[in-house]
Design goal:
Layout: E1 2-8, H1 16-23, E2 29-32, E3 41-45, E4 48-52, E5 65-68, E6 73-74, H2 76-88, E7 96-99, E8 103-104, H3 107-120, H4 132-141, H5 153-173, H6 182-196, E9 200-201, H7 203-213, E10 216-220, H8 244-251, E11 260-266, E12 269-271, H9 284-293, E13 305-307, E14 309-310, H10 311-321, E15 325-329, E16 339-348, E17 351-353, H11 360-364, E18 367-374, H12 391-404, E19 408-412, E20 420-422
Parallel strand pairs: 1-10, 1-11, 2-5, 2-10, 5-7, 6-8, 7-9, 11-15, 14-16, 15-19
Antiparallel strand pairs: 3-4, 12-13, 16-17, 16-18, 19-20
The structure holds 6-O-phosphoryl inosine monophosphate and magnesium ion (MG).
Length: 425
């Protein structure tokens, strides 16, 4: 039996989709456990190039059951678009299940996400404006609507009226925005219900039957540890837990069942949205990395902020996730680099530290201390054995592993499913 939680180690966009798509060949089930369509998981495989926002990246295998877990917030319109896009490319969704416990993103969540961001002005978080924060607020406030409720039209209508009375009061009184029509929202969501009916179910027995059979299950994280509500650079965080801890709650699998926590890290760092990023580059190098790696948001198209690998943040991320091993992605971006820097500690208020600070304010004052490593000229894209990587590329991987205090077990180059190699030491 093996249950693997795959978690983002940085600020998201680490290449989780690709790694899942590669590893799912050996899985029976993939469960998305957190976030919503703020995620953008890019996969390049024989079916084409896809940017999945909600559907687990295991969907490209006929025999892998894919579950959108209870920890996810679901925008049904986005989900239906995603299903349609897969069908257009000949990818079936027979094995897709949406947990009836997952919460729904409603039109007022999306509207409030935008209005709240505007109100924050200079302090804006830079959210994806997909309604994620407001949907999780309602979940915790116990005013949210769940996917399963779509199948009970009368109950849904009653709860929608209660929820919208409050939201419309907020929209009109605080934001001077016209109220939304309950009738319209109800009609749209009943329409979604008709189309999604066959996908909705109680995922828990499926998950636990799979565990009982000894199946291989992969828990697909969204976002990254540094965006975690508790441990990220608060308030520049997302509204659910991308951590391995979040994987247990977001899928209904207890921690004792999880055998492996695989952290996915990019060979450098990116961040999209607001908030401090100590190793961010503001020079030509940032542009070079961005253009070479195509670092533009898969969900919003925003240019991602780019910088060197942050070993302090990385080690913190390993700890709060209890990572057993690491997949290092996008290593080929450094092909042709004369030298590569990695951040090994911060200096803040004149003192060295390797502890990741608690507040965004302190983090914004941390100056990175770098170690400079020699680069390599060779093209690594098609190398299929770790031993064949240039010596300096192997040295880079080993340095990251030492900094993280965690074994790098996989190295990935390029976007394609097969461009991933196991690290044997
Ligand atoms: P994947 O799964 C990168 C960021 C947003 C913003 C902050 C809060 O592709 O790695 P939200 O819309 O969640 O309220 O925005 O979190 N963010 C991501 N950044 N990758 C993601 O997902 C992200 N999901 C949210 O840019 O800074
Ligand atoms: Mg992404």
């Amino acid at each position: 039996m093996s249950v693997l939680a795959l978690v983002g180690g940085q600020w998201g966009d680490e290449g989780k989709g690709k790694v899942i798509d590669s590893l799912a060949a050996k899985a029976h089930m993939v469960v998305r456990y957190a976030g919503g369509d703020n995620a953008g998981h890019t996969t390049v495989n024989p079916h084409g190039t896809f940017r999945l926002h909600l559907i687990p990246s295991g969907i490209f295998y006929d025999d892998v059951r894919c579950i959108i877990g209870n920890g996810v917030v679901v925008n049904p319109a986005v989900l239906l678009r995603e299903i349609a896009e897969l069908h257009e490319h000949g990818v079936g969704t027979r094995n897709l299940v949406v947990s009836d416990r997952a919460h729904l993103i409603m039109p007022y969540h999306i509207l409030l996400d935008k209005l709240e961001e505007q109100r924050r002005g200079h302090g804006a978080i830079g959210t994806t404006q997909r309604g994620i924060g407001p949907a999780f607020v309602d979940k915790v406030a116990r005013t949210g609507l769940r996917v399963g409720e779509l199948l009970d039209p009368q109950g849904f209508r009653r709860r929608l009226e209660v929820a919208m009375e409050l939201k419309n009061a907020l929209l009109t009184a605080l934001y001077n925005h016209p109220p939304l029509s309950v009738d319209e929202v109800y009609r749209d969501y009943m329409n979604f219900a008709t189309q999604l009916r066959d996908y909705i179910g109680d995922a828990l027995p499926m998950v636990h039957d799979a565990i009982g059979r000894g199946d291989t299950i992969m828990l697909e994280g969204a976002q990254g540890a540094l965006l975690d509500t508790d441990f990220g650079s608060y308030p520049f965080v997302t509204s659910s837990s991308p951590l391995a801890g979040g994987a247990t709650v977001g899928s209904g699998i207890g921690p004792t069942h999880i055998d492996r926590v695989l952290g996915v890290f990019k060979a450098y760092a990116t961040r999209v949205g607001g908030g401090p990023m100590p190793t961010e580059l503001h020079d030509e190098m940032a542009n070079f990395i961005r253009e070479k790696a195509g670092e533009y948001g898969a969900t919003t198209g925003r240019p991602r902020r780019c910088g060197w690998f942050d070993g302090v943040a990385g080690r913190f991320s390993v700890r709060i996730n209890g990572m057993t091993d690491v997949a290092l992605t996008h290593l080929d971006i450094f092909d042709g680099f004369k030298s590569i820097k990695v951040c090994t500690s911060y200096v803040v208020e004149g003192r060295h530290t390797t502890d990741f600070p608690t507040t965004a304010d302190t983090l914004s004052r941390c100056e990175p201390v770098y170690e400079e490593l020699p680069g390599w000229d060779e093209c690594t894209e098609d190398i299929s054995d770790f031993a064949d990587l240039p010596q300096n590329a192997r040295r880079y991987v080993n340095t990251i592993s030492d900094l993280l205090g965690c074994r790098v077990s996989l190295v990935s180059m390029g976007p394609k499913r097969e461009q991933i190699i196991e690290v044997r030491t």
